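[Automated response] Your request has been received and processed.

Submitted sequence:
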Amino acid sequence: MNAADRLREQGAAAQAASALLASTPTETRNHALENIARALEVEQGPVLAANEADYRDAEADGIDAAFLDRLLLTPDRLNDMAGDVRRVAALDDPVGELIEGFTLENGLDVQKRRIPLGVIASIYESRPNVTTDIVALALKSGNACLLRGGKETLRSNTALVALVHRAIGEAGLSTDAVQFVDDTDRSLVDVMLGMKDQINLLVPRGGSGLINFVAENATMPVLTGGIGVCHTYVDRDADAHMAASIIYNAKVQRPTVCNALDTVLVHSEVAGRCLPEIATRLNDAGVEMRCDHRALTILGPDAGLNTVPAQEDDWGREFLALIAAVKVVDSLDDALDHIHTYGSGHSEAIVTEDGGAAERFLNEVDAAAVYHNTSTRFTDGAQFGFGAEVGISTEKFHARGPLGLRELTSYKWIVRGSGQVRG
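Generated structure:
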């Protein structure tokens, strides 16, 4: 059997498994997740060894630091992954949830109930923790999954899937419910994009090239996102210390992820008061600040800060590194216009004590997540209480933001009668 036919066979097996999962008791699915979490804690050796080999090869190939950070697994990260799986297990089961119900004048009882989608597929790069995140959310929501990771993480993902198969098999679930494509031939991506009869939803995670290619060529529904050009706007009524703390967290806490800050916008009336503290904190963390002319003038050429003149392509750029663009604007409207022009629809924040300005920002910025007086780093399934996420959608259909359990379901109408016929 050639690789393409094997992939299609995996899709068919996943579809068959998804039909069984949809009617599997919640307790059984939770048992499977608990087994996965425990295995991530006590069977770390093979996974860490596989990841070390992946990391060593990626480093030798000259892969950049941001990618290497996303690839790396450690005992603490595996324990964190186990915690995320347990948090998913602890959530209410969405399958069968009554969304709404009513009785018509003719006596028909109508209910709208939540059901699994079927097979969730994902093509993703560099982050092996995505493997267990998707598995946990798919199984909990009654869905099978078909996973295609990047070649740089092949060993890591193979080891994780082997762990998952043992864990769910011991709980009585079919291992066909978790399918992993272990062939890195890129032509199989084209095959996968044509499998609309086996895949109900496809979620790509990676760089803009991958995401755009999938969106343009997939034959099944796709939820895209993950490209985050994130702004924090410091309004004229901002608390300077709060602004510096939020911006520091959004940029520095983990700069290689999609919800990290890329651009700081500061109102001109408070730039002289706020920018020096913001810049000092970023500078101390090794952040390069690419500043427009007014920001450079305020910060001064002799302050010993890591500042350089911004170029046009620094606006609207996802840096994924310790780099931030900095711009002075004259009004909230200017900030909104800048975000409208350069934002990616991911996560945007305003720092202000003016409730009216905050409400305008929250209502008018078109993004999956908008924040007032807090960091964009909270755009995350675990932080939102979802346990984990399949991805972060910047689409508007059928889901937006972190994709948790309910975003992996659809619904059907259930109608009960007593002999009624339509006249």
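Summary generated for your ticket: The longest helix spans residues 3-21. The chain has two domains: 3-223+403-416, 230-378.
If you did not submit this request, please reply to this message.
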